[in-house]
Amino acid sequence: xxxxxxxxxxxxxxxxxxxxxxxxxxxxxxxxxxxxxxxxxxxxxxxxxxxxxxxxxxxxxxxxxxxxxxxxxxxxxxxxxxxxxxxxxxxxxxxxxxxxxxxxxxxxxxxxxxxxxxxxxxxxxxxxxxxxxxxxxxxxxxxxxxxxxxxxxxxxxxxxxxxxxxxxxxxxxxxxxxxxxxxxxxxxxxxxxxxxxxxxxxxxxxxxxxxxxxxxxxxxxxxxxxxxxxxxxxxxxxxxxxxxxxxxxxxxxxxxxxxxxxxxxxxxxxxxxxxxxxxxxxxxxxxxxxxxxxxxxxxxxxxxxxxxxxxxxxxxxxxxxxxxxxxxxxxxxxxxxxxxxxxxxxxxxxxxxxxxxxxxxxxxxxxxxxxxxxxxxxxxxxxxxxxxxxxxxxxxxxxxxxxxxxxxxxxxxxxxxxxxxxxxxxxxxxxxxxxxxxxxxxxxxxxxxxxxxxxxxxxxxxxx
Amino acid sequence: xxxxxxxxxxxxxxxxxxxxxxxxxxxxxxxxxxxxxxxxxxxxxxxxxxxxxxxxxxxxxxxxxxxxxxxxxxxxxxxxxxxxxxxxxxxxxxxxxxxxxxxxxxxxxxxxxxxxxxxxxxxxxxxxxxxxxxxxxxxxxxxxxxxxxxxxxxxxxxxxxxxxxxxxxxxxxxxxxxxxxxxxxxxxxxxxxxxxxxxxxxxxxxxxxxxxxxxxxxxxxxxxxxxxxxxxxxxxxxxxxxxxxxxxxxxxxxxxxxxxxxxxxxxxxxxxxxxxxxxxxxxxxxxxxxxxxxxxxxxxxxxxxxxxxxxxxxxxxxxxxxxxxxxxxxxxxxxxxxxxxxxxxxxxxxxxxxxxxxxxxxxxxxxxxxxxxxxxxxxxxxxxxxxxxxxxxxxxxxxxxxxxxxxxxxxxxxxxxxxxxxxxxxxxxxxxxxxxxxxxxxxxxxxxxxxxxxxxxxxxxx
Lengths: 464, 462
Description:
heterodimer; A: alpha/beta; Rossmann fold; 3 domains; five-stranded parallel β-sheet; four-stranded parallel β-sheet; 18 helices; globular; disordered N terminus; B: alpha/beta; six-stranded mixed β-sheet; 19 helices; 14 strands
């Protein structure tokens, strides 16, 4: 109970202490589930993401994705009205499907639900079935359940990958190709993963692959759906691959992940790997490619690894002993934490926004050298992150743009990784993965720390 | 698919018009967006959130699953000269069990804790699609908390599906109105105004308040730019309401007129002509010749300051073609005029929420051949930008990639911008930005300019 008199004539204090306000989520470190699904659908060739719900969901998600990728991102919606919310969205869904089929001529419609359509209990398979009868030339439709009151954007992402595989892949002859499920990584990461796998001679099906659709060239004419993305035929034929590499420790024990679906339905070997950030995780990724292909590691990759280690030696003193806060999606936090430990930076706080089963166990299994005192949390918001960070005197933050406020408050640098990066250009193509990504990250880390030292120095040496 | 092949959906044909072809033609508007049309509009919640967001000493709590709050966290350029509470994003982040068993308890706890920690002057509680459906009694929770904490705790009726963005504006106005009339109006000058629909993007409210101060007019409350609860409480003491973003605030102005007899004028601070007209209009209504004289002096002084540079840009930009797609139509009028003063022609213009009167006015204002659209979408906008061969697009973040992807200059004129574009200095900033975008050498490398020009019809192609 608050004393009434205490508040009158008062007003917000300059510094808020929100640590006791645990009922509300304060400055979320997560987004809603349909966002992840839309991103996945954008990575399938000729696919239009379609949300069954209010107009606002599609518009907000479009705007958010545009702020990071700086590319057109059309998402249709069935535009619920009050009447739709009461009587169901069948008519709106059909009208919407008819309109997008006419205007976009998609090869596939990626249909995701929203909290609204989930709450009123829409029967999606039946609604889609009815659309097929009602809408001429309707392309295939993949649907995924993405209620935002269950999980976060990263769950929507993985659920959509699984939905695509479950609903499109059919039995086919073995073709020896490789399935690669990268998780929610940057466009530069996607390109690099493909390059690495192809250098072992693999035909790769990367699902999703938004490296062109969300990071492409300028256009001479408008493209209703941008070129690029994994072809639907390739998704159908994922059953004939020699194996599925599924990146991300959070999916490792998940028996319902897309790679598990492929293994259980078609006997394609599931190989779970840590997101290849840093040396050891990349070594494991490369070793898996070498084993599956039966080929030696290409000299170019070995050379890249060599350059990485050489650079780490050159810069080891700059980074050693620095204290870092790492926040964002669980799998990226795990990868980055492992890398920081490899170069002598101490992760003092590892924290993710989405709820992640056994996050600490997963993290400590990948990074056994992580100090016992490192604070590890999942399901956190930025009030939690700030509260913890303030007590840990970190030297730097690693995470997305939403950490800028904290970086500013603590007067320490923010190394921008993950999603969203909407206060810098090129956020969509930050390279995190492989030896090359580690090298880029290392240079960025070391140079940021050097710049801090240089700028705060009273002398201002031009030679360091 | 080429842009020529982009078709206009049957249900949208009435919302697209080529000016001058038929003098009696009216544009269809005020319609719910067609399903699957990929409208640039958001929802009722968005409309309410954008209007109330700048009130800096109020607590804003979104009651619903996380998305609605997450997507509106500190993305706007609405500044505060004092508290920064509005820049936080608070949500009840409803989970499945809350959806099943109701979210009132969680909301109550959230409000109780947040009010204790943030010590706001008032709290706004936004309902969302889910709270609308599961039937949480947000009003009852607000009443309980108001009684408990002694501050106004105001429900904002904004389930996303319950109308269009415009209905969200109305919900925001109704929420604001609960504060109106609760403050002491003694000491308010007879020469006083409220600024409605001015949101202090990039500090524009400071600039406007300075103009009014210089000509001897007191601004009682800016609604909602750099907004404060105590100012809102006494805004009924002002003698005149100047309504800038009329789409969002006309409802509030009408209520203030009906209940307190305060007249209102639709004005705009975008562009030289409109800014000057706004100052003259205010002076005229308040009826003090000294104020009118000071307004004239201010306008001449400010114009003298910026005209030389503007003339330079005009010379360079003359004859360039622009597209405008913004939320409210009233801003589009100002932009058409502002571009004209820079020598540029608007060949495509539209808005998300214009009404019949707005579009009639837009038709009169625009040249023959200008395409006018209501509640448009990326495909249409891209098609018309290419058909009309525009050099510049003025819009918001959602329109930006359409322009950039096609190699067209772009100027952000939405709430997310961080550049002040209002008033006289704002006009200069606007001109500089337009100049910087249109004249950048990068366009000579984009495919649209490098490749043979895309032909617009078969005759040209042949």
